[in-house]
């Protein structure tokens, strides 16, 4: 029974991992930090027209509440500790993303511990 429960939890996590990977790989408007949540959700669902001259850029950081809210469509106030831990565990296992323990400011979510994308080909000393 325990093994079955662990397998089921792994399957659920794997499904979420795929969604998170897709979310992180999707390029976003360069003014993402200044967009309202409704605009972000419209963009992610394909219903947002980019303003003239607006470029799409790679996402360079994320946090658990951003993924909960924008990737899974949840409301921040309903995100529990278990949800946060599950998302952070998935992010920790992703290649190319590094956990930053010093909280960083997110326009919609305040100060959060986050993950930053590792820059390809650049070795920081």
- Measured by DSSP, the beta-strand proportion falls in 15-25%
Whole-Å distance between the termini?
Answer: 48 Å
Helix content: 40-55%
The number of distinct helices, counting runs of at least 4 residues, comes to 4
Tell me, rounded to a whole number, the average pLDDT.
90
Biggest sheet overview: 3 strands, antiparallel
Output the strand order for the largest sheet: 3-5-4
Write the layout of secondary structure elements.
Blueprint: H1 2-25, E1 28-29, H2 37-44, E2 56-57, E3 61-62, H3 64-71, H4 81-93, E4 97-106, E5 110-117
Antiparallel strand pairs: 1-2, 3-5, 4-5
Protein name: Virulence-associated protein E
Characterize the structure shown.
With 125 residues, the protein is an alpha+beta fold. It has one domain (2-117). 42% of the residues lie in helices and 19% in strands. It contains four helices and five strands. It has helices at 2-25, 37-44, 64-71, 81-93, and strands at residues 28-29, 56-57, 61-62, 97-106, 110-117. The strands form two sheets. It has a three-stranded antiparallel β-sheet. Strands 1-2 form a two-stranded antiparallel sheet. A hairpin with a 3-residue loop joins β4 and β5. α1 crosses α4 and α3 (64-71) crosses α4 (81-93). The relative contact order is 0.16. The mean pLDDT is 90.
